Amino acid sequence: QLQLVESGGGLVQPGGSLRLSCAASGGPLDYYTIGWFRQAPGKEREGVSYISSSVSDSRTRYAESVKGRFTISRVIANNSVALQMNSLKPEDTAVYYCAAKRGAGILTRESVYDYWGQGTQVTISS
Questions:
Q1: Percent with pLDDT over 90 in the chain
Q2: How far does CA 76 lie from the centroid of its chain?
Q3: What does the pLDDT look like over 52-107, one tens digit per residue?
């Protein structure tokens, strides 16, 4: 019943910033753990960042490759989760997906997520 839509992707130069949004309909996102994943051309999908449900204290976690550059947060008024991406590198180029699992703490295993968005393209290039 939950529907997720990613937005905010685009083409930016190295060192630039993007803010992605994962907006939900069909239920309040604060009941869900949210994960951001990405898939680069020719590579497997990998976890980027996670935020646990609000009843689990909204803890966050980041992949080492993005730690210090990306920030995940909830935007309650929009029933969404944002991923602020700064100091972008060409290696960040990928399709970015958000996913949700109801009533959970931090989840890093892709297979446990029940709901997925369609993805949004992020391209970092000069």
A1: 90
A2: 15
A3: 988 777 799 999 999 999 999 999 999 999 999 999 999 999 999 999 999 878 98
Q: What is the mean pLDDT of the chain?
A: 95
Q: What region, left, alpha or beta, does residue 124 occupy, with left being phi > 0 and alpha being psi -120 to 50 degrees?
A: beta
| Residue that the structure tokens 């994943």 belong to | 37
CA distance linking residue 45 with residue 22, whole number of Å: 17
C-alpha to C-alpha distance for 78 and 74, rounded to whole angstroms: 9
Q: Read off the tokens for 51.
A: 């935020």
Q: Is the pLDDT of residue 51 over 80?
A: yes
Give the length of the chain: 126
Cα atoms in the Cβ-side hemisphere of radius 13 Å centred on 126:
3
Of 78, 79, 76, 34, give the one whose Cα is nearest residue 52: 34
Strands 120-124 and 10-12, sheet pairing: parallel
